[in-house]
Amino acid sequence: MADDTSPKKKKKPSAQGGSNDAASDRDADQLEEGGGGKRKLFLLIGIAVLMLALGAGAGYFAGGMRSDDTAATDGVEEEEAREEKKREKRHNIYVTVGKLLAAVEHNGGTRYIQAEVDLVGYEKEIMDDAQHNVPALRNRLLLLFSSQDFDEVRTIAGRERLRLQSLKAVNDVLELDPKGDRVEDVYFTAFVIQ
């Protein structure tokens, strides 16, 4: 009776009617190997999940480090972006100074500089002031043009220098700070020398 109470694996009889011990041992070995294969699969999946988690953590950490390092530059970039947006919202305001004709001494003779001058700015108040002071601006620009060396204004570099001097003269007449609100530029819409 001791045999009946002990836990033993019962062998199922084979479909052929007899007991085939070798076949059932092989089946048991295959089941054990299949269980080992499942363990390997679970182990590989676990390693893959662990690697993904480590990669995500490293990415989060590196992203946090980057944001700390670039916090100062982000502030500068944001300020530049705000200034650019402000510039985009502004509309160009033009004031026409008109045609200027200035006599210039050259090799004992008289030569002429004729230019059409326009001013551009963004602040309505400043450009209204420029429009109101066109006679003073014309006077100052005529004096500036008359004092030029004729050979120099014949070159593109000389004309550009005269344009920059004209911008400074306009802002001086209007008593504007060159770094603050001011007339932004002077355009020669026509320029003739003879």
- Say which CATH homologous superfamily of the largest domain is assigned: Band 7 domain
In total, the number of domains comes to 2
**How many E-type strands?**
3
Question: Numbering strands along the chain, what is their spatial order in the largest sheet?
Answer: 1-2-3
Arithmetic mean pLDDT: 80
Note the gap between the termini. 135 Å
Strand content: 15-25%
Which outline best applies? elongated
**Helix and strand string, N-terminal first?**
HHHEEHHHHE
Describe the main β-sheet briefly: 3 strands, antiparallel
Question: Judging by the overall fold, what is the CATH architecture of the largest domain?
Answer: 2-Layer Sandwich
Count of separate DSSP helical elements: 7
Lay out the secondary structure:
Layout: H1 2-5, H2 21-69, H3 71-89, E1 93-106, E2 109-121, H4 124-132, H5 134-146, H6 150-153, H7 156-173, E3 185-193
Antiparallel strand pairs: 1-2, 2-3
Helix pairs in contact: 5-7
Q: In words, what does this structure look like?
A:
By secondary structure, the protein is of the alpha+beta class. The model is unreliable at 8-18 (pLDDT under 50). Helix 5 (134-146) packs antiparallel against helix 7. The protein starts with a helix and ends with a strand. The chain contains 7 helices and 3 strands. Strand 1 and strand 2 (109-121) form a beta hairpin. The chain has 2 domains: 20-89; 91-193, Tetrahydropterin Synthase, Chain A (2-Layer Sandwich). A 3-stranded antiparallel β-sheet has the order 1-2-3. The chain is elongated. 11% of the residues are buried. Helix content is 60%, strand content 19%.
